[in-house]
TrEMBL record:
Gene3D superfamilies on file: 3.40.190.290, Winged helix-like DNA-binding domain superfamily/Winged helix DNA-binding domain (1.10.10.10)
Name this polypeptide is given: DNA-binding transcriptional regulator, LysR family
UniProt keyword terms in alphabetical order: DNA-binding, Transcription, Transcription regulation
Organism: Paracoccus thiocyanatus
Pfam families on file: HTH_1, LysR_substrate
Family of the protein in this entry: Belongs to the LysR transcriptional regulatory family.
Length: 298
């Protein structure tokens, strides 16, 4: 259905701001995506997009066309969801995002198994420790560690993820072992930071309740695995999910810092957009992940 495919391309190009990004999202080359836009403009005899120095923006008629084209695509997707629900054979693309460490260790290894069970599904996994605009990026499921902030999204709690402060024995021998939470302010704390990142403080569990500590470090990164690597090099103390550092703790490469005052646990869950009718494959994948990772957080 070339016309419907052209509508999908146009909608994603508008949402992502470029033909290259829109085409990539739909697994087609920029040239093919550009031709789909041209087909629509030729069909209606109007310009739908204007190119600026930074991105593509819809013309006035293009904006009106986008609003209606998006509704057409959503209605079509809902119709397909109804059919999939009756047939028990889900199909189509499923867009999933997750933080880097969580995605690499837990989600990505399970993707082939899910696709083997449901061969009609194409799964597109995007990993990033940065905040993702789920609606604008057309994400179906966003797995997360932490507390969801967007009340416009539905969220499902899957498990509680314990965390640990860890460092190498060499770092602690050189810089001293913190005896109480306040001692962390004198250490090089390795922080996960990016624009609008919340991690400029750590919250630890104490007998008096959660204690928020402003912590600092000489360098930070937007990739949790980079932080773990620095910690393993003896560069500082890092706050990581316990499942990510369990192997290093068992081998003695890292040791736990302030074990009586661990960081508060993170919530492992999944966010999905509010939709009048949820595609069955969205629920199937969320259920599949919840079932497969249950033992990791036990």
């Amino acid at each position: 259905m070339p016309y419907l495919e052209s509508l999908r391309v146009f909608v994603r190009v508008v949402e992502l701001g470029s033909i290259t990004a829109g085409g990539r999202d739909l697994r087609m080359s920029p040239a093919v995506a550009s031709n789909r836009i041209k087909d629509l403009e030729t069909r209606y005899g109007v310009r739908l997009l204007n190119r600026t120095t930074r991105k593509l923006v819809p013309t006035e008629v293009g904006r009106a066309f986008y609003d209606n084209a998006r509704r057409v695509i959503e209605t079509l997707d809902e119709a397909e969801a109804v059919v999939s629900g009756f047939s028990g054979m889900p199909h189509g693309a499923l867009r999933v995002t997750a933080p880097l460490g969580l995605g690499r260790r837990l989600i990505a290894p399970l993707v082939p198994k899910f696709c083997d069970e449901y061969p009609g599904v194409e799964l597109r996994l995007r990993l990033s420790d940065r905040n993702v605009d789920i609606i604008a990026d057309g994400i179906d499921l966003a797995f997360f560690l932490g507390e969801p902030q967007d009340s416009a999204l539905k969220w499902r709690r899957i498990a509680e993820c314990r965390r640990a402060l860890v460092a190498t024995p060499g770092y602690l021998e050189q810089h001293g072992r913190p005896e109480r939470p306040e001692d962390l302010t004198a250490h090089n704390c390795l922080l996960l930071r990016y624009p609008r990142s919340p991690e400029y403080y750590w919250v630890l569990q104490t007998p008096e309740g959660p204690q928020k500590l402003l912590v600092n470090g000489r360098f930070d990164a937007d990739d949790g695995d980079v932080l773990s690597g620095w910690a393993l090099e003896g560069r500082g103390i890092v706050n990581r999910p316990r499942y990510e550092v369990a192997e290093h703790l068992a081998a003695g490469r890292l040791v736990e810092v302030l074990p009586d005052h661990p960081p508060i646990p993170s919530q492992f869950g999944v966010l999905t957009p509010h939709r009048r009718l949820q595609d069955p494959k969205v629920r199937l994948f969320a259920d599949f992940i919840a079932r497969e990772v249950r033992g990791v957080f036990a």
